[in-house]
Structures are given as structure tokens and as C-alpha cells.
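Form P-L/3: holo structure prediction, ligand S-adenosylmethionine.
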Amino acid sequence: MAESQISIHYAPQDPLERIHATLQRHGLRFDALSRDDIAAFDEFHIGGRAQTRALAERARIDPETRVLDLGAGIGGPARTLAEEYRCRVTAVDLTEAFCRINALLNAQLGFGDRIDCLCADAVKLPFRAGSFDLVWFQHLTGNIADLAAVFAEVRRVLRSDGRMVFHEAVRGETSELHYPVFWAGAADHDNLVTAARLEAEIERAGLVPEFRIDTTEESRQLFRSALATPRAERPLLGLSVLVPDALVKAKNMLRNLESGALEVIQAGYRIG
Ligand SMILES: C[S@@+](CC[C@H](N)C(=O)[O-])C[C@H]1O[C@@H](n2cnc3c(N)ncnc32)[C@H](O)[C@@H]1O
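OUTPUT (holo model):
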């Protein structure tokens, strides 16, 4: 997807205004929000904070790990890693409006000294070779037309003993996807590939697999249960605070997961 299309997709109106308007409706103040208040929308991937924690455990992160989060969104995962694993995180995203919100939330929630926030494209990273121990991404590749360029950059910015972990939706081998979904409004803006293609691109860049977990069934259950939850019991500040048409997209996600058009994996690699 072209750079401008990505920002238009994720931030068609100013998402900060959207957040303020929702908070106002509920009588809440932006400067009084806690991490828990925003957990249902600042972790913008299947399974939210629980899946960030699961991937972090698999990634063996400790306070010395220098992490690069690619496609960091508004920064929920970076804050979870910085708070719970005490590591330093550099959060990069292409959508400027998301980077601004990320920086605001970091300052307000006390993460200014542990998270650096940058607006940049994953295909051309503004870092020196060997800057990071771990590259991390969640639900990024559906927006990436040139996977080879991204993984060449990942390899370049990693130290020689560096690792990469991800949590990604991938295209199933059988049915057609139904749109809109969270990363694309229509098929012509969708770059999602199959797991086999993703893994081949990664290995071509010189990374070798360490682990791979299929979380498709768990993801199906999560959508089934979220969509079956009565409105009054859903989180006050859900994903619709950030994402236009979140309910329609969530229903399509479940439909795609049930038809086999969509699968979800977590995986880890190291430099070969
Ligand atoms: C579905 S969101 C996931 C956000 C975050 N990883 C999370 O889990 O909360 C995908 C994010 O990838 C970002 N993105 C898409 N293409 C990108 C690129 N080429 N470089 C950097 N970020 C990109 C989008 O702006 C968006 O914030």
C-alpha cells in the first residue's frame, strides 16, 4: 500500500479528535487516563495485551534488550514491553497521527525516558546498522508491498546475534477475504501474504526460524467471544475509539477466520 494510503486508511479523520470526542461523551479526561483505561484500543492487534505478553515471553526480553517495534501504532505494545520487561523500546510508525498520540501518551504515562517514538517507513529505517537486539512487529505486513525491503532493513539494523519476533495475520490457502478488515478497506489495498510466502521472504533475508505458533483457533475464539459480549459489558473505551467501522471489521475478521481465508501466527527468528 502506498504511504499516503496507509495514513488515510488508519487516520481518515484526526484520531486524537476521535479519542477526545469519545472521552468527552463519557465524562473522562485525556490527562487522567491510565494504561488500563486505554488497553482495549492502544494494543491494536488480535488478543490485545495478553498476546503482547505471550509474544514477549517467547521473545525472552529482559531489561538489557534494545527493542525496535515496527508499525508500533499508538504504542500500547511498546508501553507493555517497557513497563513489564523494563526494556528500552524504539517505536516506529508511518502514520504521523498515530506517532503523535504515541508520544503524547508516553509523556503523560511516564514512558518518555524508556520509549523513543519516530515517524518512519519500515522499508527505509533511520538507524545505523546493528542498533537493536530485537525487532518486533504485530499486524504490520498486510500494509507492506515490498516485504524483501523490510526484511533487508530488519537484518541491517539487528546486531549480529539479533532476533526478530512477530504476531501476524496471514492469508489462508483457500477462501477469498471479505473486506473491510483492520488493515485494508478493500482487496486492492491489501498486501497480506500466506504464511509460506512470509516465511520464505524472511529466510531469504538471512534469518532462521526459532519458533512458530499457530494462534488461529485462539483468535477465532477471541472474536467469537468479543462479538457475543453484550454492548453494556464491552470495554467503555473499545477499539472503535481509534478505528472507524470497528464492529464491521471485527465481524469480517471472524468470518475470514472461520472460512479459512485468514490465519494467525506468532514466530521468532535469529540471524543465521
Ligand atoms: C494494525 S496496526 C498495528 C499497530 C501495533 N503494531 C499494535 O499492535 O498495536 C498496523 C500499523 O502499521 C503501521 N504501518 C503500516 N505500514 C507501515 C510501514 N511501511 N512502516 C511503518 N509502519 C507502518 C500503520 O500505520 C499502523 O499503525
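COMMENT: The radius of gyration is 18 Å.
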